[in-house]
Write a structure and sequence with these properties.
Chain A is of the alpha+beta class and 624 residues long. Chain A contains 20 helices and twelve strands. In chain A, helix 16 packs across helix 18. Chain B has a single domain, classed as 3-Layer(aba) Sandwich (Rossmann fold), CATH 3.40.50.300. In chain B, helix 3 crosses helix 4, helix 3 runs parallel beside helix 5 and helix 5 packs parallel to helix 6. Classes of the chains: A alpha+beta (624), B alpha/beta (230).
Chain lengths: 624, 230
Amino acid sequence: MSKAAFPINDLLRRKLQTSLTIITLTLSVASTLFLLLFSSRLGFNAASAVGTLTQGLTTIFSQFILFIGVLIFAVGAVLTSFIAFLMMAQRTRDFGLIKAAGCPNGLVAGYFMTELITTTFAGCILGIALGFFIDYAAANVVFSAYQLPNFWFAPLVFVAFFVLSVVFGLQPILKAARMSPVKALSPVNYYGLTTTNKHKPLSRSGITWRIASRSLFRRQSATIRIVILLSIVFILLTVSVAGGIIASDTTTSWIQKTVNSDTIAIAHNSMGNQYKLLLSKFSGAKETGDFNYSDPKLAIPEGVIGQLSALSSVSLVDSRLILKEHVNEISNFTVNPDTEQTYSVGDSRQGEAIVVGVNPENLSGTWFVQGRFLNANDDFEAVIGDSVAQAMYSPDTSKNTMLSNPLVQSIEFQNNTFSIVGVCVDPVNNGLVTYVPIERLENISGVSNPNLLLVKLNNSTDRSADIAQIKTLIQATDPDLNVFELDGVIAKNSAFLASTWQTIMLLPLFTLVSAALCLVGYMMLAVDEQHQEFAVLRAVGAKPKIVIFILAIQSIIVLVSSFGVGISLGTIITLLILMQQPLVTGFTILEITGWLLAALAGMFIFSLYPAFRLAKTSILKIMT
Amino acid sequence: MSTKEDLMIYAQALGKTYQVGDLKLEVLKDITLSIPKAKFIVICGPSGSGKTTLLNIIGGIDKPTSGKIFVEGQDLTVQDEDFLSDFRCNNVGFVFQSYNLVSTLTVAENVAFPMEWTRKPEQEIEKRVTELLETLGLQHRANHFPAQLSGGEQQRVAFARALANDPQLILADEPTGNLDGKNAQKITQVLQLLKERGKTVIVSTHDEQIRELADQVLCLEDGKLASKNE
């Protein structure tokens, strides 16, 4: 038999263990590569596809993807090292046997290194192939078109994971190589067992609990590794599930606050359609580029506003003047109170934005994420959309703008400067929007009437009849005026936001499956190490369910301790770092708890596979 | 001649075949025997003659490929695993050649655990463990783990565990096979004690000292019952 034949035959003989190792490595490598490829696509898509998502939301998405990416890479690294360690730790006894039979130390170490390198290479290569395949499938489903990925990620992931696996897998090989055959064969040294005596002759806890807990401590090295691995997996899961749901609810609420579901729009047909397009730009629509917002034909007569306000079905009429303007950033100065040094804040960047004049006393809703919204005393004050804030009021090192803060700066258009008092997330024109008092805007622009009304309806049993009444009323004054229901646009925007979040939340799924396989590997280590004892327990009268129970306790201890650590850190990361002003309702907590518990339960059930397999095996087969 | 009620074990045309790859290994062939209660039986025979397999079938650890085995009137060939677990726990005490103690449990816990499954009160378990460890000279080792004991001590713990639920049938598979003369003698004394207490003891052994205790010696050869010496 050639020197290479032994390790290959050995791997083929241990089919289950070998395939489990390769599958886990494959999934770990594939999920990491897929995440890198997919997030680069998502980032590319968000940046290049003009008119999709506001820039503030893109930043939130990018933060999430970055965090999830870092965590998935960390999980992949720990998972790969764990599986390599596990594979080799299980062979300590075989190592001793081969050495005891007279095989030279170097040759036996070579056998196991060949096994390690073969399985790691197979797992990494298959993982790269699977990663590209999943990316291809996901790109076709999500983006409807396939563009060639960034191939440089493949060698990066391959080298990183291959090196990690070999380095961590070598540790138990070198440890076993240094061990004498007697020690390697001894159950005392096998898996680093200790025989310290800290227990009473008869402890009061149940027999199953005692065997399970002491076995866990006996396998300290492997137990600590699996707890660390699962903790990171649960952090990842919390960030993606809890963070994803909270962020989704919060951002959806921001988007829905701009136009409430009980609100309709009234405008001339062309203006109404343009406003709907401006709102839909968030989810991919394009507005008419050369639209003349200041066209006098779009003005809504004062009389219409009075008539609408008098209707019992109407609770509020929010008059708006919508214009398109060239806007300029106005910089400011700030003084450090300690050093009295003066710093310049901002630059003189420019851009196009929709400027909306509103009556602060008659708003159908308020929506801001920073500062405040306009109030009745404001005149030369403005609230800017998040895309304006990101594009014109964020630090830009390429232009040497180190300090920038919209709330201490101003915005200028048509030679009038407005102090910025707030920043809002707004789907209108995809966040490239600025709100100012309507009277000031009318004075500046010379347009004396609003061109859009947002009408808030009272709760009514017959909404259709109310809308029909309003339509008849306004068309009696001007037949070109019309009612525009905005529910469909809001629903489309919310659905688009939700589907984007769901795509991000799906990314860690592969990691979860890999981690579950790792847990199965750990449980197989437990079965492997304790098989003789389980056989004895069965022989002296333990029912198969007792063996399952002992292994289930071990799985629960590992899972619950990891779950506690992971959930706590994941929640801190989500609420304190990723999401400002989170919207957390009772239902959100229930939904998150449900998903996380489902993941925990799924992993627990999955981890019991080796236990059920053992329970079905005859006592004699376990013994031998 | 023994009546059916006096019999501890009755085996009828027992056969056991193992499939190893394409090869069929016939380990037991057409064994019919009856063992009365309170008898000390020694099973002898060369390695591979089927001694361990016969003990495993009598103890309900293994099932025959053909034939029937009755222990204390129960037909073990038709019982499911849960019944057999209860049966082994309450009716059979098994001692293995390689001791087979649970390494994560102390000596006292190793003796106690078969009793915990029968839901005996804790005080009763403690009393019984103390009694058994004293009988076997292991009271000073109660708090130690198996890896801290000598082979002879581990085998005595295995006997204590086998006696925990006070079974009427004790099966010992080469109990002195791994022990030196001094420790083997201590085990022989334990077996003598069991015989005096009226237990049915079946020992597979080559040990002449143990053979002297036998009421009956069964010799197996190539899976067949070669001779019965009263």
